[in-house]
Input
Amino acid sequence: MRRSFYHYVKTLRDPYKKDSATLFANAVSDDGAFPKQSSDYAELSDYLELSADYVESMLVFDQLFQDYTEKNK
Output
């Protein structure tokens, strides 16, 4: 069974690291409205662009989503 993007991102959390991927993962983990079951790029991208105020750059999301799809083949 493929895991959702949310479950993949949760593996990147760390309270001490301050790189952009870790900061994104920590913020997603704290976002109660994040679409936790989704693995659809368009749905996740729309949510982040329209509803999430913690995304500084969609480039971080794009890179993480690419890593996610490569690891879930």
Q: What stands out?
A: The mean pLDDT is 94.
